[in-house]
Amino acid sequence: MTSWRRYLGVDLGSTTAKAVVVAEDGAIVSSSAIAMGAVSRAGMQKAVDAALAGAEIAAADLSGTVSTGYGRRLVPGAQRTFTEITCHARGTSAMVPGCRLVIDIGGQDSKAITVDEAGFVQEFAMNDRCASGTGRFYEVLATSVEVPIEELGALALRGSNDLEISTMCATFAETEIVSLLAQDAPVADIASSVHRAIAARTLALVAQVGRHEPVVLTGGVAQNPAAVEFLARALGTEVLVPEHPQITGAYGAALLARDADRRGRPVADDVAGADGLFPRPSEPHACGSCDGTIGAPAGHPVDLGLPLRLGG
Ligand code: ADP
Predict the structure, then answer these.
(1) Fewer CB in a 10 Å sphere around the end CB: N or C, the chain?
(2) Residue 287's pLDDT band (boundaries 50, 70, 90)?
(3) Per residue in 161-220, pLDDT tens?
(4) How does DSSP classify residue 263?
(5) Where is the ATPase BadF/BadG/BcrA/BcrD type domain (predicted)?
(6) Among the atoms of ligand 1, which is closest to the Cα of residue 104?
(7) What is the distance between the alpha carbons of residues 234 and 237, in angstroms, rounded to a whole number?
């Protein structure tokens, strides 16, 4: 048994499993991100194993585990699950102290979360009914223009002409991009124009919760420099990106495990029914007439009663 305490946070997302081990002071000891497809248990196990190996500990050495993400209930050994909203807010507030607006763009959803001075969630809006404005849309673009997702941002930043992108539907976007390619439009212009259109889409999400600054972009898409640049232009303000933007949810989960242990209570007993605080979308997304976003009504008690602190 180790003489110090270590905590594990696991974010089983729609495309990528993330795991983070933190120490008692909240410092990240190790982390991993494994892209293995939709809510992959194998990906999760690999991510957990890699994070534990990086921390040079075994699962039995952990003093607490919290999971989050779409697949959070599939994580064995987790004493507690929390929604992505809570964990992204917690992790991002610790990584970027003072942040007031978290925009998280993952593989299958995008969220805008306002955070108060103390790091508590105020309001959030979420698009998880439609691929527009999510990592999936960037993947469609990357596939259509035959560029690896890692190089898409550099390509888009080289674009100079604003082409009209008439659809924000991922299903039809591929057809439109192929049509532009057939018209011999420069690939860089197509890429930049799609990025610009997605940024405008994200602006609509932000409008649901109100603009607050500083703005922090997280999620896998935050690794795309053009996504950051076009969002900053659309918002008319600087967009900060943490050093490890894809692991903020897992980091927040690990900190929540640490916070509970620090108060001397098992994490499992910390807050009953916390997940139930968040309304999940129940209405089908109707293309064309709906903007695909849902959110907590103003003043909804999204805070979980946990003493979320800024900083580790
Ligand atoms: P989830 O939690 O839903 O699995 P992530 O936050 O891990 O989603 O983000 C996944 C998305 O991030 C992918 O759909 C892809 O668009 C984007 N992405 C992943 N890696 C990179 C990269 N190296 N550069 C640019 N974009 C990336």
Answers:
(1) N
(2) low
(3) 889 887 777 777 888 899 999 999 999 999 999 999 999 989 999 999 999 999 999 999
(4) T
(5) 8-257
(6) 6
(7) 8
Pocket test for ligand 1, best of 221, 223, 244, 247 (most atoms within 8 A of CB): 221
The answer to whether 65 and 78 are in contact (CB under 8 A) is yes
Ligand 1, residues at Cβ distance < 6 Å: 13-16, 69, 106-108, 135-136, 138-139, 149-150, 219-221, 223-224, 246
Q: Are 110 and 202 in contact (CB under 8 A)?
A: yes
Q: Please answer whether residues 226 and 153 qualify as being in contact, where contact means their C-beta atoms are separated by less than 8 angstroms.
A: yes
Largest CA distance in the chain: 65
Q: What is the CA radius of gyration of the chain?
A: 19
Delimiting residues of CATH 3.30.420.40 domain(s) in the chain? 1-96+246-270, 98-241+278-303
Instruction: From the CA of 17, give the closest atom in ligand 1.
Output: 4
Contact 133, 168 (CB under 8 A): yes
Q: What is the pLDDT of residues 241-261, one digit of tens each?
A: 999 999 999 999 999 999 988
Helix, strand, coil % in the chain, rounded to nearest 5: 40, 20, 40
The fold for domain 1-96+246-270 equals: Nucleotidyltransferase; domain 5 (3.30.420)
Distance CA 206, CA 102 (A): 9
> Which of 149, 151, 217, when mutated, tests ligand 1's pocket best, judged by the most ligand atoms within 8 Å of its CB?
149
Q: Which fold has domain 98-241+278-303?
A: Nucleotidyltransferase; domain 5 (3.30.420)
What is the CA(219)–ligand 1 centre distance, in A? 6
Nearest alpha carbon to residue 260 among 81, 94, 100, 89: 81
Which residues have CB under 8 Å from 274's CB, separation 6+?
80, 82, 83, 86, 304
Q: If you average pLDDT over every residue of the chain, what do you get?
A: 85
DSSP H helical ranges for 128-186: 135-144, 149-157, 170-182
